[in-house]
Write a structure and sequence with these properties.
globular, 6 helices, about 65% helix, DNA-binding, homodimer
Chain lengths: ~150, ~150
DNA sequence: CTCATATAGTTTCATTTGCAACTATATGAG
DNA sequence: CTCATATAGTTGCAAATGAAACTATATGAG
């Protein structure tokens, strides 16, 4: 009853955090160095590139970023002319954000690099392993609740 | 050549980050609320509980925490009487840290709770899935380099 | 229509984090 | 032994992050 067997090394939240930090450190340094983008800014670009214009709230939901960070990231992107805001006809409290031509251009530059970095990380994973890994991550995420940012 | 297919939703670094944040948010809130510990402090306790006294440097390596955070976490734990420092006979620049009786007591309280939270997260994973997941995380971590914190 | 309450987004302020500089000790060359 | 350089750990300062307060608009009750 008294001897606990928790080895940090085998403790899932620890392993997950270490892996995530390792990946994130490496990749975010690259976004930043090469394009001057922070992670939330990159995520907003990616979401906007996938779809059409949307509100900050919708962006935050899609990119899993809290509204404060969305606000700051959007301000930075607008400042750089990568996205634009227009009034939201349906709700005067918010607005609609969309990529500019420059924004699309930058995204088109980054996306292949991002995919290449992912490919490098997953280099020795079979397709089956990738799918498994993805599925396991989603299950963990679901089990951890709808929280996070 | 022009249409990029990067869906953020399926992008590994994103998935990993989201899963890790979800888990970490939930678990670290619990450490903090119930025991007043931050994640690095908890990690130091766990490492010290597994082994014997060690230098800040060894602790940092074992817990994957940079030296600044080790320094701050150790200071907080010493302040609370959970660990003690004694001179390092082999090197006057560093010192040796070890759990106090209180530190062991607190660890003994937390460890089962931490394991229970882990079990909850992994509730619907088979043993095989857990092992797979762990192995995949380690491979990713290795591929991402020896960086991180 | 008016008011009370709720929501979208922003800003301010306190806390946290990370880098760089610093102190103290160690080590190796001469 | 003395000096130059390297390493362990800490601290000061600046940037990043998060919570709470704030502004503006929306909505629903009466």
């Amino acid at each position: 009853m008294s001897m606990m067997t928790l080895r940090l090394d085998a403790f899932l939240p620890y392993r997950l955090s270490v892996a995530s930090n390792a990946v994130s450190t490496r990749i975010s340094a690259s976004y930043r160095r090469r394009f001057g983008l922070k992670v939330p800014e990159w995520r907003l670009l990616a979401i906007l590139a996938e779809g059409s214009e949307m509100t900050p709230q919708a962006l935050g939901n899609a990119a899993r970023i809290d509204k404060i960070s969305v606000s700051r990231a959007a301000a930075a992107l607008i400042e750089r002319g990568l996205i634009v805001a227009r009034a939201n006809p349906g709700d005067g409290r918010s607005h609609l954000l969309a990529l500019t031509t420059d924004g699309r251009g930058l995204y088109a530059e980054i996306a292949p690099i991002a995919l290449a970095m992912e490919a490098e990380l997953l280099g020795n994973f079979s397709q089956e392993e990738r799918d498994q890994f993805n599925a396991l991550l989603r299950r963990i995420e679901a089990a951890a609740g709808t929280d996070s940012a």
